[in-house]
Every structure is written in structure tokens, then in C-alpha cells.
Design goal:
By secondary structure, the chain is of the alpha+beta class. The protein has one domain. The chain has two helices and five strands. Strands 1, 2, 3, 4 and 5 form a five-stranded antiparallel sheet that branches. The chain starts with a strand and ends with a strand.
């Protein structure tokens, strides 16, 4: 999988973009499990991506839902047994 960030929000610690092979849109957040830091990718619809690219406040709310693990059904890659915590 090749994730291509379209917008990076360093202060808010998330990005949105499109996975180039599947063409799925995503929002990603950084996580760490104590051994490694990585990103979790949450699938977005095209409509959400378009709407999010015009409204940072709505993206922040969705990123927070992801950090609270309330959007796990939208994870593009399911986490392993040593799932990290948001950083």
C-alpha cells in the first residue's frame, strides 16, 4: 500500500490523502506502541474527503474520534496484537 498525503496538519497531528493502489481516501493519525511509531489509516468516502479538505474543524473532530478508537470499523489496515496509542 502506498499512502499519498494530500494535506498534512502538523499542529493537529493528522493528515488526509489517497492510497494510490486502491484509490481509497483516508485520514491518518500517528501512534506508538513503545517500540515503533507508525500511522493508522481510517477510510474516508470521496464526499468526506472533499468536505474535509474544505473544513479543518470537522477533520479535527473525526481525528479525535479515531484517537478515541471510536472509528475502528474504518481502519484500512487492522492493527496487530501490540496496537499503539495515539501520540
Amino acid at each position: 500500500m502506498n499512502f499519498d498525503d494530500s494535506f498534512i496538519f502538523k499542529k493537529d497531528r493528522f493528515s488526509i490523502g489517497q492510497e494510490t493502489d486502491s484509490k481509497k481516501y483516508y485520514l491518518s493519525i500517528p501512534v506508538s506502541n513503545g517500540l515503533v511509531e507508525y500511522e493508522e489509516y481510517y477510510e474516508l468516502t470521496k464526499e468526506e474527503f472533499d468536505r474535509f479538505s474544505n473544513g479543518v474543524a470537522e477533520m479535527r473532530r473525526f481525528a479525535e474520534q479515531c484517537r478515541l478508537r471510536k472509528a475502528d470499523d474504518r481502519l484500512i489496515m487492522k492493527p496487530g496484537s501490540k496496537r499503539g496509542s495515539p501520540i
